[in-house]
Structure formats: structure tokens, C-alpha cells
């Protein structure tokens, strides 16, 4: 317990509590976080939390300062995914809080535990709207966008406030929690011994949730009758860290499995049951689908539509810790409410020794489709085109990850995201962090920093040039902390494609076009890292290998053919113009 006298509150960080000694809000908050195992804080310093960061660092917590609050928040969100503990982001009030709030909503949407701690103006001034510095009712703004939101007004409540935030973030379906810290709270003092007694260590914040026996039996009845079964693994299955249980379920069942992007590597992508390269076939033809930590949202066309075959042709079994997720888009024939590990274990036990695996006709059809598509892709990945297309560049990165399976792959962009997701294989769980459920841009640098900090492993960040632009200044953060991050920017001079034209004929460039041949690598060089300009697969291969083996902060500017991309990646149907074009095409056909 850190103590201090009233005159020199910040003089003593670690002395034993003594009669008459005082502590304050700064140190109580830090002590509460340390008591609950918090080792890292991601933040942007400023009024009123600058000293809080200094004191936390002095107390042994690693405090990483970013150039923008969104990046700090994205790092905290990714930390939550990687560790199953709340990632902590700390921001200043009002504008800083709003920047961090974007990341908090991102964490909540992805069901990752994160706590956003923001300084705020005094309540009595905010409530009367008297114009305080950065005045804003932050608690009211945060509530609709996160799982829970709390404000602490008194020093003696800091322990219970932090405990509530932690338990809310990780219990049940994890999510984002906001913790509002008025500036005056940090300076409040109280008796150090009483302060120590007020702290709360959270016990078993995320207990196992065992599925009911009837639910397990119902699921088994549906699964055992499947002729063409499929398992879909979502990032919830990866988050659960129930790797052995999930593997046992997949292999015991004998079902082909389709990993969503952040579930790649939960079982190796080259596993004989992996159907990733036969996605269209298995989604259309499967008659029973077991969802494990995955949601039937837009990423899976809501469980209906052309890619799912005839309406009503499938039965769904779904494992999720949130009961309200069931029947969100289609009828769930057998809902299994519980944590992934407990549900997977219960299913394996219920299958027993006489479990009948699916017919050879189905598994052979899937494996044949996988093999055929892999062979088709192989030739595209081995071309030496100059300038490179996406496949030539990704063939190099695919090999780099295969040779370094412990590396973490961070990925964002449009084409850079879509192509990489289908090309680069992963071999271990939680080795891919990407844009998540919202498909947003700007998460890459925060994700890369968190991956390096939380795992200690090398990180390969594959970025579109547009995506990199959202948070490119964080390369200074990477260099400042000397993190083993290799950034590869796919530079095609624009968004989707770099060869669009201004349709008015005016002097301004097209809305999707950037400065031609931008030298992004110079940014990394400016801060002491390594910058490489690569125009061929061989140059890219040498640069990536050197960066990944050395661990030196590196940015590789990989020149991609401006005409190689396509509009909106693989979700062009969400672009209204694309919808109009499709409607016109259908009209012409009729």
C-alpha cells in the first residue's frame, strides 16, 4: 500500500502504512489496479491524468503513451482479447475521452474485456453546465456504447469501483466498461490504513457456466443425424482459451470446420478437417451447422441468403455464453448456453465411444475441394510480377508466417485484409488480430503494439496504405518502446485502387487516390527504425526475413500495382453504388 504525508503526497510510493499516514486518490486507484493483476496501461497523458500515469509507472506498472487515444484504446481492446483480462486505457477528459470511446465501443462489439478510465470535470459544474474545462457528461455519453459505466466520487469507493469495472468487463459475455474519474477524486486524501482496507480483490470474476444436461442431449440429437455437418469457429472460441477442448470436439466429431478470421490457428489451417479453402461449398451444402463462439451476423450473411443454400435446409446448434444471441437471425434448433470450454467438453463426453463420424462422401468432397482450391492458389502466389499484385506479395508473407508460427499477424485494410485472410495460414491460436466485427480501419497500429507487449513475440502487421494512414504516427510509439513490429504497407496509391480518375475532369485527384509512390518507409527511418522500399517479391522476402529475425522496428513499403485491387474488398454489396449497379445488371438480363 503506497502512503504519503498531506504535504508531500507523491513522495512515497511503497512505504508500509503507518499510523497517521495518508494516501490519496492517485495511489488508491493504482493500488486497486495492482491488487487485481493489472500490469500494463495504454494511455495518452494530459490533464487531469498526467500524474496518474507517472505514479503508476513509479509503482511498477508498465505505462505506454501513444500519439492518439484511439490507438491506445485499440491496444487495450486487443490486450483484452489476448489475455482474457481487461485491457486498461487511460485518457484525458472530453475530446480524449471521445477518442477512447470509439475503441471502447469496438471492444464491446467484439466482446473483449476493456476498461476505459477517463478523467472528467467536476459534477457540480457539469450538472449546471457552467463551462468547466472540457466540460462533458461523459458517463451519460458512454452508457449506450459499453457494457457498463461507473463514476467514482469518493476516495473510499475507489476499491469497489475498480472491482465492479473488472467484474463487469470479464463476466458472462465480456465487453467494454467505462470508469469515470473526476479530477478532484485523484487529490482526495484519507487514512492510509483505511484506504488499504477499502481495496477489493476480485475473486473468480468469470466462473465457468456449465450447459444444462437437457441442452447437451438436444444438441447431440441434432448433431448425430447430420449427413453433411459443419463446425464454424468464431473469435469467441479463440478468446476462450479452451484450445484443448475445442480441438477434442472437432476431432472427436470428425466434422469439417470453418474458422472465422480471428479463429484461424485455433486448429492449424493445414489441419485435415479445415474447410477454409472450401468455404462456399460447406456453407451451401451443410445440413447441420455447429456454431462455436461465432455469431450469425453480417460476416456470415446472417445465416441466410444465397451462400447458405435453400432456405430451411439447415439446422443450427449454437454455443454462446449469452442466451440472447440465440435466434438472433435464424432459428437455433439446439442452443447451448455456457462457456466454450464447458460446452465443448460436455459435447465430447456425450458423444461417447460409439460416435459415428460423417460419411466419407461428405468429407472427401470437402477435402477434394480444399485441395483443388489450394492448388489453384499456389500458382498465383508464386508469380514475380512487377509491380507486385496482392497474391505475389502475400505469397511471401504466407511463407514468413509458416517459418515463424509464433509470430502474431495483425491485418487491416480492404483488399489487404480480404486477400490476406484467405491466403496466410496460421498454426497457433490467437496469432491473428484484425478489424473485428465492425470491419473498421485504424486498429492496426494499436493491435500491433498490444500484440508485441502482451505476448513478447514478433509481430507482422499487414496494412493497406489507406488503413495505415489512420494511425501512422504510432510508428514513433513502436520505435520509442523498441517493439519487434514489422509493418508491411501494401502501397497501391489509393483506396481499393490507385488508378481512379476525377470524373469532372478537374485538377483535383479522384476521391480514392493518394500521392503517387508515397515513401512511407521514410516515416519509420525518421524515428530510428528501419525503412525498406520493396518492388519485387524477392526484395520483400529479404526485408521481412531480416525484420522478423532481428526484431527491429521496421516499415516495408511494398509497391503494389495500382490496378490490382477491387472496390470495397469482398463486401462491395454494402456500397450503395455497387447495389445500384447490380440492380441495373439484373434489369438488363430480364
General description of the model:
The chain is of the alpha/beta class. The protein folds into three domains: 22-198, Thiamin diphosphate (ThDP)-binding fold, Pyr/PP domains (Rossmann fold, 3-Layer(aba) Sandwich), CATH 3.40.50; 213-367, Rossmann fold (3-Layer(aba) Sandwich); 382-573, Rossmann fold (3-Layer(aba) Sandwich), CATH 3.40.50.970. Helices cover 40% and strands 15% of the residues. It is built from 23 helices and 19 strands. The strands form four sheets. Strands 3-2-4-5-7-6 form a six-stranded parallel sheet, with helices on both faces.
What does this entry show, briefly?
With 590 residues, the protein is α/β, with parallel strands linked by helices.
How does the SSE layout of this entry go?
Elements: E1 22-24, H1 25-35, E2 40-43, H2 50-58, E3 62-65, H3 69-83, E4 87-91, H4 95-110, E5 114-120, H5 123-127, H6 138-142, E6 148-151, H7 158-170, E7 176-182, H8 183-187, E8 189-191, H9 192-198, H10 213-224, E9 229-233, H11 235-239, H12 243-253, E10 257-259, H13 279-285, E11 288-292, E12 315-320, E13 334-337, H14 340-351, H15 360-381, H16 390-403, E14 408-412, H17 415-423, E15 432-433, H18 444-455, E16 459-464, H19 465-469, H20 474-480, E17 485-491, H21 521-526, E18 530-534, H22 537-550, E19 554-559, H23 576-589
Parallel strand pairs: 2-3, 2-4, 4-5, 5-7, 6-7, 9-10, 9-11, 11-12, 12-13, 14-15, 14-16, 16-17, 17-19, 18-19
Antiparallel strand pairs: 1-8
Helix pairs in contact: 1-7, 3-4, 3-18, 10-14, 12-14, 16-17, 16-22
Task: Please tag this protein with its features.
single chain, 590 residues, alpha/beta, Rossmann fold, 19 strands, 15% strand, globular, disordered N terminus
